[in-house]
Amino acid sequence: MTSRRLMRYQSAQRLAEGVAHRLVQTIVRVQAEQERIDLCLTGGRIANIVYAAMGDIPECAKIRPDQLHVWWGDDRFVPTGHPDRNSLQALPLLSSALRLDPSKTHVMPAADGKADPDEAAYSYAQELGDVVFDICLLGMGTDGHVASLFPGHPSFNPTAAALAVGVTDAPKPPPDRLSVTMPVINRSKRVWFLVSGLEKADAVEKVFAGDESLPATWANGTIETSWMVDHDASIGLPRYNCSL
């Protein structure tokens, strides 16, 4: 487990722009060091701004689509064209920045393709296999959930044997979801949290205090664990950290 690195940004926009630059630079650097890179995406407002901002970064042209595999940490188990799907929101934004190879774009199954969330989760786990994410992007809910792993819910098991889980009766709509499990997140090389908003400040403070009832507290990369947060989300933390 790596120690948490806190990176503060003055606003949500600066957070998104900073993460976009860091993401592009890291992908380019890692691609120069190895033949394949596996990137796990997250959904949410800030993440979507990050994906859109990548297209404005000149260095993005150096990213080789033949080396890049794209995955999702979770998605809503709704029909393929449903606007709630994380992948449906992210792909149009990413396509303006990256020339994604469809054969290397691993979208989670939709409700019109699989019978139920459990079957869909099993299918995604088979596809995932022993893949280790070079970068795993995560958001965090006001309750401290990550991906679709919720506190006090059967979806959250820090030592789960499965690679992916079908989530039903989730406390946040829609109730049916798919998620990778905590062990998959924790075998990632780099775990990057993107957190914005005053409503997240209490959960951020609890994570940094070590509250293990929150799934976010358990998420760590093997090389790096970075928390990239805006001013509002970090207001409950000590102010001796450097602002960006």
What is the level 1 CATH name? Alpha Beta
Which spans have pLDDT < 50 for at least 5 consecutive residues?
none
- Give the beta-strand count: 9
Helix and strand pattern:
EHEHEEHHEEEHEHHE
Oligomer: single chain
- Report the end-to-end length measured between terminal Cα atoms: 25 Å
- The percent range for helix content is 25-40%
Bin the strand percentage: 15-25%
Give a short overview.
It catalyses: 6-phospho-D-glucono-1,5-lactone + H2O = 6-phospho-D-gluconate + H(+). By secondary structure, this protein is α/β, with parallel strands linked by helices.
List the helices and strands and how they pair.
Blueprint: E1 4-9, H1 12-33, E2 37-41, H2 45-54, E3 68-72, E4 74-76, H3 86-95, H4 117-128, E5 135-138, E6 164-167, E7 177-180, H5 182-186, E8 190-195, H6 201-208, H7 215-218, E9 224-230
Parallel strand pairs: 1-9, 2-3, 2-5, 5-8, 8-9
Antiparallel strand pairs: 4-7, 6-7
Helix pairs in contact: 1-2, 2-3
Walkthrough of the structure:
With 244 residues, this protein is α/β, with parallel strands linked by helices. 29% of the residues lie in helices and 18% in strands. The protein has one domain: Rossmann fold (3-Layer(aba) Sandwich), CATH 3.40.50. Helix 2 links the parallel strand 2 and strand 3. Helix 1 packs across helix 2 and helix 2 packs parallel to helix 3. Pfam families: Glucosamine_iso.
